[in-house]
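=== Structure Prediction Worksheet ===
Name of assembly: unnamed complex
Input type: mixed (protein and possibly other molecules)
Chain count: two
Listed entries:
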Amino acid sequence: MTADISVRNLVKHYLVPVREGGLRASIKGVFKRRHRRVRAVDGISFEVAKGEIVGFLGPNGAGKTTALKVLSGLLYPTDGEVAVLGHTPWQRRRDFLSRMTLIMGQRQQLFWDLPGIDTFLVNKAVFGLDEPTFESSFNLLSEMLELGDLLYKPVRQLSLGERMKSELAAGLLHSPSVLFLDEPTLGLDVTMQQRIRQFIKDYNAATGATILLTSHYMADVKALAERVIVIDQGRVLYDGLLQGLVESYAPHKTITLHFEQPVDVKDLERYGEVERIDDLQFRVKTAKDAAPGATARLLADLPVADLSVEDPALEDVIDQVFRTAAE
Amino acid sequence: MRQILVGFAAFTRSELANLFQYRAMMFLYALWDVINPIIYLIVWSLVAGERQISGFSRDDFVMYYLVFMVVSHLALAIEVYTFGPLIERGQLSPRLLRPIHPWWHAAAVNISYKVVNLIMLIPVWIGLFLVLRPAFPGDWMTVALFVPALAAAVVLSFLVGSLFAMLAFWTTRSFSFWQIWTSLLFLLGGQVAPVAVLPGFVRDVAVALPARYALGFPVEVVLGQLDAGELVMGFAMQAGWIALAALAFAFVWRSGIKRYSAVGA
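=== Predicted Assembly ===
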């Protein structure tokens, strides 16, 4: 498979002014400015194959958005090589810009005081879409995102979710083959999150587009990405299958138990770490290898009414990745 | 090129629609373009009285500032207010993602602003001309020369305005630098006084600097105040300053965009 996105040792540092608080520091700052070098992205490398959906994960300030901005041509890197669709992004060639999009989960390209349709007509002109192409793309997006008459209301009167749907549609009107999605479901309610997620999935299936997405909602990542790249402090901590991440960083399972009658906690403690929910319900965190044996013994020895065995929440796994890296 | 023009036309249409949302605000801005020259018109008319100042009679001052009113509106640079903040707030990002240079959008904003205001200003201008009825000292030749002089002033003004706006790549206080240019326009561009009226040494400086060519020069042209030598020299200076500003524009854009940090967006 060919790589649509190729990143080699990407570095992006910023110089930010620093000064202490107070008047004295302000006056000193007039004569002498101090700067601090922020290593937003500090030597990351990865490839994304054509048609792949990859989740880009990391805490706030990890460098995800900065990396996406470099990849979409908004920022010049400090060092490193990047090729997206065979182009160097920051040269911003017409062919490159016409085949990719960056969509961020906040107010972006829509004309604030005008109905969304006006932005669509501008994009139609600047991307050079002919009438049939525009019509078919517009109708497809309207249908998939259920836009209805949203595009005929001034953008400032739309709700956050409605605006996000309009932003997505405006960013995809030119049918890009590479999508950079930065927190596409940020601030949306659960229903709208699911709808956007399904849309991204359908768009990928229908067009074979390559998608790199960041999200703080693990549900987004679980629903969309088989592969994840975890970064922190500008460096890649993990790059591989999502399932592999769980296996590598969460070598335990959680057994949730519902008993017919109260049991002694001590009887559970020999299987692992116990969390009491109420008199009849408990959670036991046990080593992954020991889980099948523990389950069998619990069923045999105790009055179990119901039992389930689960991997830990993805949030906990990611947290474990960062803690391991910090150690 | 066709693609650029199609895009530019689309930007202009949407910006016009956008500006029509703020008719009252636009009218207040436009009003200043009228009031400001009227103040100079009244002051110089009173100062001149029945005598002449450096060859300008009271009627000449009235005519000068009436035409100046039109030129100063058409050659107004607004990029420090419209484009600079986009850089400072990271809002340039969506414009950088479109396959057309962001300055085409900025040019569309500039033109739309002037077109919308013209709708309000033209009746005001006609009214003032009818009320004051100054004698027009030019002829068809000066009117013909006025067109390229005005076009060049508009282009030069846009380029200079853009250069100052792009200082926002380096500083969050680009407005303070902009004061340098507005002061030059005020003192040496033909605003506080026609350049011909300025004292000898100051006039020589005004003739050499770009401010006059972005503002007062077209007024001097249409009113027939310049002889053939001064006209040739004036157009040559306009062309020279435009070339220099265009080179600086290209250089500053290329350097500035490398520093763009897309903060917050």
